[in-house]
């Protein structure tokens, strides 16, 4: 039956693709030019998009000549339901900025259709990625232990593109677990009795993850997925450290927590400590060098040896600012970290998804995730002389994401990337000054880079009301967080996160005018 | 300091993007037209691509006018290092096929730069995805329990786009663990003593995952990441079921394994069973209906109740063939599955990455992965009336991947997708006939859809040699697997996996001629 002729599938010819591709590029170019006129936040209600789409798939396809219909539906059915992250007045969450070079890279990646799970399945996909991670380590001023050439006493350094900081956190925990297995295997004859006992029993006990209260939700989620924590409220396995007046991890509180729990009989084994460089709420920076000193001291006191769990640095948003040498003090002490994650898809013009993850111990990473059935075996991998990035990540398959990073770095140069970050910091600094001059407002935490948190004095209700009204205009979009200074109740803050590539001073100024005039209409206590 | 003017970042203007975008589309269109003339497998040696790239990032960027340099480097530095997955003579692994409509969708997704973590962050990103998953459930003939509208006794059905089948397997295991937590919470007053005891103790013990020996490596990897298994060789937690003469799970062997282990004191709790529909080695199909009967019988015998662990169906590759009604017998019994995963990025023309994951118990999924800090709270989510897909997956952020699926289905229609799958099956059937006529070759397992496994009679060395020589020509690329019939030693098989969109009968015919003439030069015993 299979051998009889079947109807020819209606593949798009290269020339049809060329014509439609030009048209889609035009759509995107026009979108870049006009997005500013659209409401930032979609005004659709739940179900509106669904109601504009057919309930059933089409039986018949379209000729390439009939794609007018698709372009029409994109405008009519989809666009009203889009919240415009690339809008110059998008100030919500953290940015997820894109750029022309990034889009061109994504287009080429899709066009080549390469799947880079193994070195062999496209050497260029692997090697361009390795080189881009080394370039970025240099651009960000990371220590040499994170370079692909670093030996690190046989553990091997290097970086990889993960999809998101959530995946980076998950693989850090998984590698941290492997580190314990390696320790158990090593610490037999040479160690002290105490060490041997600890290494052996450590793995048998539950693990715990240590992070500040302000760490990103992806840390708890990673612990849940990895089977470390039972849920976000599992305080036995998620040791949550209070924050200080700026929202950074309180090292005194960390020390008390460690003194209380470390080495207690039956207590979980600390698996990993996560330092956040730029919290999602208020952009606070955990002090890595001080953190490491506190960890060493507490470990020595309770366990008789320096800190030896995994230290992961989550610099998802703020890490992009490391392209500016004047910002690098932010990661002082990072040479003691085992891994660090930075998202160029947030603030460095490389479209989502592009998380950069470096480790100083790639052996822990790859041993934790390597499974090699016969059908993936090949001479290059078995030589040990190549990188197979599938073993550095959760998925097996991988897109050619290094292309977009390459294009972005080529187009902007180190100089252009610095100008980009500095310009957003400058705009935020202006905004901070304006807020400071209006006595109706307060800023309970200092500006962090391009993020300004502020509120109307008095009850939270007023700030909530302000945000709702501003966002409903469609002329700007801001989101919120809560923040509690030590000893005070949590208060609602509006977050002005500047970061879209298209944002200019006039957009920030207009947003501030809109905020001020909206505040005029809100009754204050 | 921040307020002083900074140099303007050199963003690409919309018109510069338009011109370069057209040029990149032309590059892709030309690539589609000419890829056939390139060697399928890159001839680069390890380090060759690195040697063609600068060691350090550029300090200065390019003008948009200087992008000639980038286009030149793509051709000179990257292309020789590409293994061409879209080449019509790529027959390795499983396909990862792309199409014009899929590339257009990826381009639009990158151009809009939307991040769809929450319904609110782009309603269209969420609702188009929901509708596409319902469309595909219809196209594939999946039972109603997997539709987004299915209540399933309060558990809720529906689907989501994951990156890969690996991530799908991981979230299935994570949801399965949550199912036990739900059971523990429910089974208090109404259950029998045995049930209560079991539910309570089940979670305290380690878990185990059950799959056939031929299940994909991502199943073991997911168990390792989820903290269920200590490594790929952890036989206590990875119950590996022998396969039958066709490579499918041997249900008799499964029953013996269950009789031996189920309900033994201290034995791990079965967390999930994975049925593979189209194994990666030889394309074998685990018989779901028979599997469920076996599980029910074994559970009743040992535990006094029907099977109640999670049943995940991994139909990553073969699932695409379900667009053809004549192939649906392959998933008879799937209405008892808790989840099913199919990759349109393998064989249904939707560029990587696009895995479709459906579940009948979305509550288990979302409860297992939901962490909601203040900065993600919003009125739409709290209403409970919208889907926030971030809780269905490992990452927080998400691209607008539904666009490419929408474009592919619109362009091809159900009719065109069926023609596409049937044409590849027809070509494989031709190839199978040719192999059958050449007495030097044998086919130890039957063809499965578009996959033909074959070998030169005699020792493995001959087939290994054949593959190396064929692949070295650059005129075709095939990979291998091993297969052991019950009671026999494993033997090396060449895999002819037909699936590139550009593959026509002439390419299959040329590959066969190349294989035959290469075999002429290999000394047979």
Task: Characterise this structure.
The structure is a homodimer of 525-residue chains. In chain A, strands 2-8-7-6-5-3-4 form a 7-stranded mixed sheet, with helices on both faces. A 5-stranded mixed sheet of chain A has the order 1-11-12-10-9. The mean pLDDT of chain A is 94. Chain A has helices at 14-34, 48-51, 68-78, 100-112, 123-139, 165-186, 193-204, 217-225, 251-261, 288-303, 344-347, 362-369, 379-382, 402-437, 460-473, 505-520, and strands at residues 90-91, 158-162, 207-212, 238-241, 269-276, 310-314, 339-342, 355-359, 441-442, 451-456, 477-483, 491-497. Chain A has 525 residues and is an alpha/beta fold. Helices cover 42% and strands 12% of the residues of chain A. The first copy, chain A, folds into 3 domains: 14-84, dopa decarboxylase, N-terminal domain (Up-down Bundle), CATH 1.20.1340.10; 146-368, Aspartate Aminotransferase, domain 2 (3-Layer(aba) Sandwich); 408-520, Aspartate Aminotransferase, domain 1. Chains A and B meet through helix 1, helix 2, helix 3, helix 4 and helix 5 of A and helix 1, helix 2, helix 3, helix 4 and helix 5 of B.
